[in-house]
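Lab manual, section 2.4: Encoding a predicted structure.

Procedure: take the sequence of the chain (92 residues), apply the prediction step described in section 2.3, and record the output as structure tokens. A sample record is shown.
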Amino acid sequence: IYSLNSVPLCALRVGAAILIMQKFEIIKLLELINKYKVTIAPFVPPIVLAIAKSPVVDEYDLSSIRTVMSGAAAMGKELEDTVRAKLPNAKL
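Recorded output:
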């Protein structure tokens, strides 16, 4: 409940646009990040893992992402390092 309220409400309060997917599909997510130049990415750990492990991620320009937020479960050092390599412009 906290993240459902805090993330969208804070974004709307400062005038940011919000991109919400009805269903997670990695290709669609990557296309939307590319199209809308997403800068802040609040991801749940399974999506972080999908980004880290999927070879298709390298086919997309994700350089617009400045911040990746993830919660609800620990990521672990190895996963964090992999995400940093895939998204070098982003702070985790």
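Check your result against the sample. The chain has a mean pLDDT of 89.
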